[in-house]
Write a structure and sequence with these properties.
single chain, 360 residues, alpha/beta, TIM Barrel, 2 domains, six-stranded parallel beta sheet, three-stranded parallel beta sheet, 12 helices, 9 strands, 52% helix, binds zinc ion
């Protein structure tokens, strides 16, 4: 009797243990099945995204039509090489990778790239369409990266401008040239080469006039003539004005009001500089220019990032300084952009009739 009861208890215990084992086994099976399903989902998502990417790539490759290619380059979300999120360890991704916030106005960037394409193909020295495309690729801007704009005043001036352009070309760098209108006629090929390298052209008046000493009509003539010349010769619209001697009327004066009104009429921004190389100072050597430009802070405590640097393409020492400065700045991670690009990428943006940068 006692034994039977004991036996029954054991049997019941065995049954319970078996039930628990079965339950555990079922749970394990479910877990394995679940993990398998998750893996399958991940696999399918991965394969589908690979196919989508391949199809897109195929489509891009098919678009060999240069304008379409340029448009694609222009609209390519910036920066282009933002890494896509890699396979996350937790839940399978359901949403498409997020595009980075666009800090560059898309319309402006498209226009800028199309203008560059036109200038490179018309005036540049590239072996074929692929070479132009590669150059354009190099001119892509990372809006979040370090940038500065190198500017040259008073040219085009032979043979200095050629040498400056040689340095820019060798380093795949670009700059902005504030030219004198009267010099363009004798140096058309230099202006063409500037455009062909992706540089920007700004207005430094026709004969380096002091705008404060001119009447409103004379101001419009000296500035407007240069703009007209650039358009008739190169189909190029100038949008930057750098008044000679940094003279554009004191704040609150009629002169200032008129110059600002003129800039607006002509769709131009008035642009000075933030850091001068002092190359126009007789006692300044190339090494002193280099030290001054590379200094971490200027007299006003401003850093080098987003600077507008002032040089003149009319001194031999400026050429010597550029040979050192351009690679040095690139090595420090600066993108050497044009003034319009710098302003368009800035928080305030580029606006006609605005005055930019206090000169030092
Ligand atoms: Zn000047």
């Amino acid at each position: 009797m006692e034994l039977d009861r004991e036996e029954a208890r054991r049997r019941a215990a065995r049954k319970r243990a078996a039930a628990i084992r079965k339950k555990k086994l079922r749970r394990r099976r479910l877990m394995v099945l679940g993990a398998g399903a998750l893996l399958l989902v991940l696999l399918v998502v991965g394969v589908v995204s690979l196919i989508v990417r391949a199809v897109n790539k195929g489509r891009q490759a098919a678009a060999l039509e240069p304008t379409a290619a340029v448009a694609a380059l222009a609209t390519a979300a910036l920066p282009a090489d933002t890494p896509l999120p890699t396979a996350a360890p937790t839940p399978a991704p359901t949403a498409v990778p997020v595009t980075p916030p666009l800090t560059i106005q898309e319309d402006w960037y498209r226009e800028r790239t199309e203008q560059l394409y036109k200038n490179l193909t018309t005036y540049g020295n590239y072996s074929d369409a692929a070479a132009v495309y590669t150059a354009l690729e190099e001119m892509q801007i990372d809006p979040n990266g370090k940038k500065l704009a190198i500017t040259f005043d008073d040219g085009p001036y032979s043979p200095i401008t050629e040498q400056i352009l040689d340095v820019l070309e060798a380093n795949h760098a670009r700059a902005t040239f504030f030219v004198k209108g009267a010099y363009i006629d004798f140096n058309k090929e230099l202006v063409a080469r500037e455009l062909g390298l992706g540089c920007e052209i700004g207005n430094h008046t026709t004969n380096h006039e002091d705008l404060e000493k001119l009447s409103p009509a004379e101001r419009r003539a000296t500035v407007g003539d240069l703009n007209d010349k650039m358009y008739s010769l190169f189909g190029y619209r100038v949008h930057l004005l750098r008044p000679p001697y940094i003279k554009y009327g004191d704040k609150g004066t009629e002169t200032r009001t008129d110059i600002v009104a003129m800039a607006k009429e002509y769709e131009m921004a008035i642009v000075n500089h933030t850091r001068s190389s002092h190359d126009s100072h007789d006692d300044y050597t190339a090494q002193m220019m280099i030290d001054r430009i590379l200094a971490e802070k200027d007299e006003l405590g401003r850093g080098l990032n987003n600077s507008i640097l002032l040089f003149h393409d009319k001194y031999q020492k400026t050429v010597e300084a550029m040979k050192v400065l351009i690679p040095a700045l690139q090595q420090q991670g600066y993108q050497l952009v044009t003034v319009s690009e710098l302003l368009n990428c800035s928080q305030e943006g580029l606006h006609y009739g605005w005055i930019y940068s206090k000169a030092d």
